[in-house]
Amino acid sequence: MSNVNVNKIKNLNDNVTVDISADNKFSITANNSSVSGNIGIGSTTPSVAIDAGQKTDAIALPRGTTAQRPTAVAGMMRWNSTTGAAELYNGAEWIEVITDYIPSGSTILG
Fold this sequence. Notes:
Elements: E1 8-10, E2 16-20, E3 26-30, E4 33-34, E5 39-40, E6 50-51, E7 63-64, E8 77-80, E9 85-89, E10 94-96
Parallel strand pairs: 5-6, 7-8
Antiparallel strand pairs: 1-2, 2-3, 3-4, 8-9, 9-10
């Protein structure tokens, strides 16, 4: 499979344009009006910004090493291939999502 680089796609009637910028951001224009809304993956009626709720497989997180972390904004989530764990940016720092282990020194409540 080869990569195809496209920066603008128009339909046959020239009334819908998908424009992809150099920094991989995209916009959709229809009849000279900006289009916004929810994106459905496996759904024609998405109920949130990105809705893959009808799918049963998985969502792949962006992944990279600790050194490859992006300039962060609170709420970002990624897979850290250095630590082998999912991590969230809380607005101040990247924190590891604890899943199936208990770090030494932890107290179990309940």
